[in-house]
C-alpha cells in the first residue's frame, strides 16, 4: 500500500544517511520527489508523527540496537545515530524511553 511504501522508502533513506547530523526534512522530501509540505502531510497521515519526531524515533531505535550490542560508549552511539551532542541525545532518549541511555545499559546488566 502507498503509505507503507512511503514509510519504507523514508526508513531506507534514513538508514543510508543515519550518521548525517545535518539530515533535514527537505532531504527526505527531495529523495522522494515531494515538496516539504507534501512530505510533512504524508508522514503525519501515515505515522501520526511529524517528520522530525519520526526521524528522532528512528535515531533512538537505532541507538537501542547499538546499545544492545554493547560495543560502543553512549557518546559513540550518539554520534553514530546522527546526534551532534551526547547531552541532547540523552534528553531525546529519556523522552522516548523514560530512562537515560546509561540507566538503560545498567538495567540490561542487571537482568
Describe the structure.
With 111 residues, the chain is mainly α. 73% of the residues lie in helices and 0% in strands. It is built from seven helices and no strands. It has helices spanning 2-16, 25-31, 36-47, 51-69, 74-80, 86-97, 101-109. The protein starts with a helix and ends with a helix.
Put simply, the count of helices is 7
- The first-to-last residue Cα distance is 40 Å
Low-confidence stretches: none
Mean pLDDT: 93
Total DSSP E strands: 0
> Share of helix among residues?
over 70%
Sheet of most strands: none
What is the quaternary state of this protein?
A: single chain
The value of Rg in angstroms is 15 Å
Secondary-structure element string:
HHHHHHH
Q: How would you describe the shape?
A: elongated
Structural class: mainly alpha
Strand content: under 5%
Task: Using brief descriptors, characterize the structure shown.
mainly alpha, 0% strand, 7 helices, 111 residues, single chain, 73% helix
Describe the secondary-structure layout.
Elements: H1 2-16, H2 25-31, H3 36-47, H4 51-69, H5 74-80, H6 86-97, H7 101-109
Helix pairs in contact: 1-3, 2-3
Amino acid at each position: 500500500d502507498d503509505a507503507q511504501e512511503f514509510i519504507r522508502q523514508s526508513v531506507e533513506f534514513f538508514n543510508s544517511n543515519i550518521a548525517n547530523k545535518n539530515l533535514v526534512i527537505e532531504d527526505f522530501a527531495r529523495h522522494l520527489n515531494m515538496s516539504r509540505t507534501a512530505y510533512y502531510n504524508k508522514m503525519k497521515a501515515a505515522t501520526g508523527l511529524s517528520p522530525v519526531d519520526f526521524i528522532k524515533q528512528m535515531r533512538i531505535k537505532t541507538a537501542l540496537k547499538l546499545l544492545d550490542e554493547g560495543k560502543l560508549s553512549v557518546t559513540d552511539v550518539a554520534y553514530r545515530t546522527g546526534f551532534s551532542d551526547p547531552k541532547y541525545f540523552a534528553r531525546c532518549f529519556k523522552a522516548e524511553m523514560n530512562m537515560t541511555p546509561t540507566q538503560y545499559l545498567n538495567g540490561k546488566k542487571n537482568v
